[in-house]
Amino acid sequence: MGESVALLSWGLPTVSVLILLFAWWFLNSRLNRLRLNDQLELEKLEAERLKQLDLVKSDFFSNVTHEFRTPLTLILGHLDQVIPNITDERAKKELVVVKRNAKLLEKLINQLLDIAKIEADKMDLDLRKGNVVPFLNEIQRSFASLADRKGVGLKFEFKQEEINMDFDPDKIELIFYNLLSNAFKFTDKGEVSLTVDTEQKDGVDYCKLVVQDTGIGIVEEQIPRVFDRFYQSENSRWRKNKGTGIGLALVKDLVDLHEGHIDLKSISGVGTEITILLPIVQKLMNQDTEI
């Protein structure tokens, strides 16, 4: 009898401790679950807030850019009317320079509008089926006078005379205008080239386009960031020729829109090579007439 009482008196504290431990574990688990739920809810609310903020910024960005374009369009219209009637050759040349810079500003504004459309997921492809080789040839030929002024070679090389594919002419022109402009901006001697070929990757046929220059190149650690929007290199040689930081970012967005791939290789002081792969056949539905 004495032993039973002793065992019972020993067992009761043990059971109490176990109950207390279980209660602590249960309450602690419950609290952790509540904390986790609260954290997830806060993260969800924060994500929604950031999404709404991005929409507000995109709308503001787009509206302001549209406001810039309206007076600029009026300026260009007046210049088109005035320049042919100017008899003073010196004044005429000055106005031609004004018009050239206004056109560059218009192109920049259009790029900003394109970025706003991409961010709002409102950018569509207007696809045409046609031979991309002569189309690209016309784009690179528009840089001939710039190449002459800078004393830099301009080379267009095509492995095939005919590459029929689906592409949006306006977007392709914008891609290669930016790439060739960038190449000439940072190349003071040597050559800028555009090469067109085909390649198969993962069972898909691509048009392979390579823009190569012998310019100042990019420092290795900065290469991963060159496609970031508004990024500008801290390298003093790049800062001297700094731009807006939207050109390459827009190029990547437009290549992605074509479901393509873009790759950049560069060696500081040697030059840069940008390779773009665009699917020859697009899976998009809004395919239109031949170009």
Question: How would you describe the overall organization of this protein?
Answer:
It is a single chain. The protein has 291 residues and is an alpha/beta fold. It is built from 7 helices and 8 strands. It has helices at residues 2-82, 89-119, 132-141, 144-150, 169-185, 236-239, 247-257; strands at 127-131, 153-158, 164-167, 191-201, 204-213, 261-267, 271-279, 287-290. A 5-stranded mixed beta sheet has the order 2-4-5-7-6. A 3-stranded mixed beta sheet has the order 3-1-8. Helix 1 runs antiparallel to helix 2 (89-119), helix 3 runs parallel beside helix 5 and helix 5 packs antiparallel against helix 7.
User: How many β-strand runs?
Assistant: 8
The class by helix and strand makeup works out as: alpha/beta
Low-confidence stretches: none
Morphology? elongated
The strand line-up of the biggest sheet is 2-4-5-7-6
Q: Largest sheet at a glance?
A: 5 strands, mixed
- Assess the beta-strand content as a share of residues: 15-25%
Radius of gyration equals: 31 Å
Instruction: Please give the count of helices.
Output: 7
